[in-house]
Records
---
Amino acid sequence: MLSTIIRTTRASTLVHASRPLVLRSSSIFGTRSLMYSHRLLAEEKDSKSKDAKSILTDDMLFKAGVDLDAKDAGKESKEETTSAGETASSDPVSPKKKKKRQSSTDIKREKYANWMYIFSFSSLTGLGLYMTRDWDADEPKELKESVENGYTIGLMYQRFKARLNSTFSYFQDPPFPDLLPPPPPPPYQRPLTLVLTLEDFLVHSEWDQKHGWRTAKRPGTDYFLGYLSQYYEIVLFSSNYMMYSEKIAEKLDPIHAFVSYNLYKEHCVYKEGTHIKDLSKLNRDLDKVLIIDCDPNNYKFQPENAIPVKPWNGQADDELLKLIPFLEYLATQQVSDVKPILNSFHDKSHIPVEFNERVDKLKTKFYNDQKNKQNNWLLKALSVSMGNTVSGNSTKFPLDMIREEGEKNYVRFMKLIEEEKEKMKLQQEQLSGQTFTLKDYVEGNIPTPEEQMQLQMEKQKEIEEMFETRKKENNQKV
C-alpha cells in the first residue's frame, strides 16, 4: 500500500510538473507566429514601396536639368560596398562601367542622325556612279577627247576624275571666258592695252586705331592716267574683291574718261593657292598687252608681258612720271609685239632708268649727225634748193616732238573733260526736279514713253544752250 501511495504521488507530481511545460511551449509558438506576421507585413510594405512609381519620371527629371547620375551615385556606391567581396573576387581589375543616361529626345535624334548618315552615303555613292557614265552630247569637247566611252573600271574612273576636276575648275576660273568685250574698230582702237594694278601702285590703304581705314592716292596718278589714255586702252585690274575696290576705282575716274574697264579679284584664276591675273582671258592680242604690277604671283602666267615695280608705301615720289616716257615710246612706235622690247632690258624693274640712258645716247648721236649735215656743203645746198633750212634750233629729237604733241593733246583732252563735267553737273541740276508723284500715277497724268523721250530731248537741248551761254560768258571774262 505504501508502494501504491508512492506511485500515485509520483504520478501526480509528474502530471503537475508537465503542465507548465505545455504552457511554455504554447507561449513560444505564439511569439514565433507574431514575429513571422510582422515579417510578412514588412515584406508586403517593401514590395508595395517598390511597386509604387513616382509622378516625376527620369525623362522629365533629365529635361529639367537634374543630374540623375549623381542622384544614383549613392545607390551604386552602396551596392558596390555590399557586393565588394563578390566584385573583387570576380573582376578586381576592370571598374564598373556606367551606362550613359539618354532621354527620349536624344534617342530620336540619334536615330534620325543614323538615317541621315545612311542617306548621305547612299546619295554620294549614287552621284559617284552617275559621274562615271558615258559622255553626254552637251559636255565639252576637251573632256570627250581626253577619255573614251566604255564601262571598264579604268575608263569609268577616268571619266569620274575628269568630271570632278571640271567641277572644281568652275570655281577656280573667272566667271566669263572673255573678261572684256571685243575691241572697237581700228579708227577708235588704241594700239596697246595697259593693265594696271590698283593696290600699292596707284593707291595705298592703311589702318590705324584713331582713323580706321584710310586710302592715299599716289602723286601724279591723274596725270599718269590722263596722259597715257590717249595711247593705251587702260584696264584697272585690282588685287582685291569688288566690294572693297569698286568705290576707290570710281573715285579715280568718276566719268570713265581715262580707264576703259575695271576688273577685280573675282576675275582672277585661282590656282595653287594664289589668285593669278591671266591676260589670256582679256580677249585681246597678248602681243599688244602690258601689265604693271608689284606682285610676281599676279602675272606668273605671262611674265614676259610684265613690268615689275616696287610696292608703294604711301610716301610721296615721282615713280609714275618716270614710267611715262617709255610707255609713250612703246605706244608711238607701232610695235607688233611688246615682249621682245621688254626682254631687251637687263632688269625690267629698272626700265625707266635704262630707257633714259638709251635715249641720251640716241639723242647725242642724233645731234652729232645734225652737226655733220650742217658742215656738209652738198647736203646744205640740196636743202636750200628744196626750200628747207637745216639748223640746230629747228631740228628736234623725234621723241621730244612726240612728247610735245602728246602734251598738246593732253591739254585739249582735259579741257573737253572739264567741259563734260560741267555739262553733267548742269544736267543733274536741271533734271533733279523732274519727278512723278503717286497722284500722277493714280490720275493717269504720266506721259507715254514717246512723250517722255520727246520731253527729254527738248530738255537736253535747253541744257546745251544754257551750257554754251555760260561758256561764252566765261570766255568773255577771261
---
Amino acid sequence: MAIQSHINPFLNLEYMQNENENKYFDRKSAKIKPADLAPLISAFANADGGTIVIGISDKSRRLEGINSVGEERVNGLIAARKDCCKPMPQCDEEFLEIENEEGQQDRLLLLHVQKSIDQIIRTSDDRTYLRIGDKTKELRGEDLINLEYAKSTRHFEDEINRDATLEDLDEELLREYRHRLDADESTDWQVLNARGFIKKVDDRDYLTNAAVLLFARNIAKFYPNCRVRFLRYEGDSAKTGTRINIIRDKSIELPLLRIIDAAREFIATQLREFTMLDVREGKFRVVPEYPDFAWLEGIVNAVTHREYAMSGNFIKVSMYDDRLEVESPGRLPNIVTLENIKETRYSRNPRISRVMTEFGWVRELNEGVNRIYSDMAEFFLDEPVYSENGETLKLVLKNNIVMRRMRRELYALNNVGISVWRQLDYMEQAILAYILNRGNASRAQLAAYVGKSDNTVRTRLNNLMKRKLIKSKGNKYDPNRTYEAGPAVVE
C-alpha cells in the first residue's frame, strides 16, 4: 500500500522525499529545534498554507524518521505553533508509518499549516514571515504593511493623509453627504469626525485616506492612481509598436463619489447594440452587447473594493471586439475566493463601501456578482470569468460578437415572422429562440435549457425541421448531432 497523507493525498512518500520544496511544501530533519520551526509555520500561515514534513533531511533528503529524537522532542515540534507563534495558527498534525534508511520501522510527522484569513501570524520574538516560492522571507517595512492590508489587520482607508485639509474637499459632495445623513445643520468637520474620517495625531486633526478619496476636489493631486482608464481596441487582442490598435484611450480621474457616474456615462457611449429575438414576446428588440448591470457592477466593485495602497496602479477597462475586461488592483480580499465569489461579500474598504451605498449605489452593491451571472445568461452570453494574475483581479465579459456577426450576415431573423411564431407552442418557441441566439445547439443542450425529456425535445425538433425553421447537422443517431437555423430564416 502506498504511503501517503490522508489529509493531503497528493503528498506521497516519493513526492515528499524527491520533489523540490515549493510554496506549499517543505521538509525538515527531526533534529530541528521547535523554535526554528516557527518562521516556517508563520510563513505558511501568512501565505496560502502548506505542509512541513519532519523526518526527511532537508539537505540530503535521507529518510531519517522521527523516532530517534524521542517523544519529548516530537511533542515539542507539534507544540511549536502554540509555544513559538502568536497568535496560534490552525494546524493539523499527522503521522505516517515508514521504514527509515536503516531499515527500521519509523514515522514521519506532517504539520499541515492552514492559511490564516484575518490574522497575521508572528513568531514569539515578533518577527513576521511569508512563504514566497520555496523561500521563507522575513517581512519588514512596506512589505509588512502590505501583508497587513491583505489580512485586513490594517486598512489603508483609515490611515491619515498629512497633506490634505478640509479646504481640499468638494463642498457640493460634502453638502450632499450631510443631507443624505439628515445632518444638514451639522458642520463638515462634525460629520466627518463622527464617521471616522478625521483622526487626531499629536493634537492635530488629519483627514483619512478614505475622506480624501471620496470627497477630494482634485483627486489627482493626492492619489494619481485613483482613476479609471478606458481602452478600446480594434480586433480581439492588444497590439504594440507599429501595429498598435488602440482606437480610444480615455482616463477618468475623479473622487470616488463622481467616478462611477462619469465612467458609466462614457462607457455607455462606446457599447454597441444588436437585434435579438425576445422569447417571451415573440418580437425582435434592440439590446446592448452586454447587460447594463453586468459591466456597471464590475466597475462599482472595482472602485469600491480595490486596493488603493498600490500606488501607480489604476482600474483599467479594456474593450475588444469580443469581450470587455475590468482589471482592478489587488487580489480578492480576505475570505472571498474565485470559488465563492458569487455568494460571499467582503469589503476591503468598509468605510468607503458604506458611503458609496449611502450615495445610492445600494442596488448595485447588494445584488452583487450573482446577478452578473444571471444577467449574462439571460442575454445568451457566456458566464463571466474572474481570474487573479499577480496582484490584479480581472473580470471578463464575453459578448459573442463573432457569433452575432455571423448570424446577422447569414440569417435574417425577422423572416421567421410573427404569424409563424404564433403557430408554434411555447416549447418550440423556446427551442427556436435558443438556436437562433446561440447559432447552433445539441439536443442535450436544448433538453437542459427547456427542462424536458430528450424524447419531448426530439418531437419539437422534428416539428421545427418540417417547417424548415431549423436543420440538423450530423447523423440522427449521433449523440453530438446539432441543430441550426433552416432555410425559412435564411436570406
---
Amino acid sequence: MKRLRALLCGAATAALATAGLSAFVAGQASGAPAAAAALSNRWYAAAPYLMPLDNNPPNAGAIMDATGLKAFQLAFVLAPNGGGCSPTWGGAAPVSSDTAVGSVVAAIRAKGGDVSVSVGGYGGTKLGQTCSDAASTAAAYQQVITKYQLKAIDFDLEEPEYENSTAIAHEIGAAKILQQNNPGLYVSVTTAGTADGTGWFGKQMLNEAKAQGFVPNNFSIMPFDGGFNGAAAQTSALTNFNSILQSTFGWSAATAYAHEGFSGMNGRSDTGEYFRQADFQTVLDYATGHGMDRFTFWSLNRDRQCSPPDNNGTTSGTCSSVAQADWDFAKYAVRFAGTTPPTDPPTTPPTTPPGSCSVAAWSSAAIYTSGNEVSHKGHKWKAKWWTRNEEPGTTGEWGVWLDEGAC
C-alpha cells in the first residue's frame, strides 16, 4: 500500500512546541529523557498514525484538546538512505541525534499522552533488509525504544520488504527479541489486507511468526488499496483474516479476534476507494463487538478537509478528500479506547455574506431522512440518514449532514 508516503512527503514543517523541545533537550542533557506516560494498552491499540516531520504535520496537542486522543503512532523508522543498520526517521534523520521528533514526544507526554513508533511502512529501505540478522535488527530498534522510552512499537511489514523472506525473518526475530528484552512492551504487526484477509506474503509472514514462536499483541491488516470500497468490504476481510489466524496458530475465533487489528485509511485511498465517517463507525462497531485488539488509521496528517472538500477527485497526504470537520476520524480511535470525545463547538460562520439557497432552511424541530436537503449558514446540506435537532456544520452529529457547498 502506498499510503501516500513516498510521493507526498515534503520538507519537515512541524511547528514544534518550545516547551516540549526544552523538556526533551534538558532530559537528553541529563541522560534521562522525559518518562513515558502510563497509558493502558487500549490507548496504544487506538493510536492513529502521525508523520511528525512530513505531510504538513498537525499540532498533536491541538488534536488532543479537540478529541481527547492520548496516543499517537509516529511514522516511520527506516534504514539510512545510504545503507547501514542504524535507525533513521524516513531514511534521512538519524534517531541518535534527533531532537525534532523528541520535542513532539515530550509535548505529547506533557499533556498526559504517549507515543508508539512504527518501523517500516511502504517505500524506503527497512532495517530488516540492511541489518545482517535478527539480533542486529533488534539492536537498531532498541536504540529507538531507549531514546524515546517507548512502551509500544509497531512493525509495519508490507511492500516491498515483506516479499523478502530473509528480511521478514529479521523483522519477526527482532520483534521477538524486543518483546523479551522489554517486559510489557506493546507490539503490533501491521501488514497488507486483501478481500481474503491477507495475501500470500502476509500469510508467509504469519508462518514465520509461528515458526519463531512469536505472538505479538496483534496482527493488523490494512483493508484498503486492494479493491475495497466502504465498510462492508472491510469487515468481510477482517472476518476472513480471523479464519487465517485460527488456522495458522490453532486459535479459537475469540482468541484470534483478541490478537487481530484493523488499520484503515480515512477518506479517499491511493486507489480511489472511499472510507467516510459512517464506514469508520461500522468497522468500529465490528471491532468492539468481536473483541478485536486494535483500531487505527492512516493518518492524522490527512484528518482534515481539503479545499475543495473532494480535492477535485484526487488523494492527498495532508487532507482526506471527503467532507469532514478537523479530526473527525480521530474520534473513532478515541471511542475504541473507551472514551467519549469532547463536544466540539460549532464551526465558525462564513466571513462572506451567504448566498441565496433554493432549499428550505434547517429547523431544529424538523425530522429529516436520507436525501433531504436544507440550507444553513449560507451552505446547502444533504442528510445521510434520519436526523433531528443535529445542526449542519457541527461535528456532534458525526457526519450526518453532507456539505454540498455554498449557496
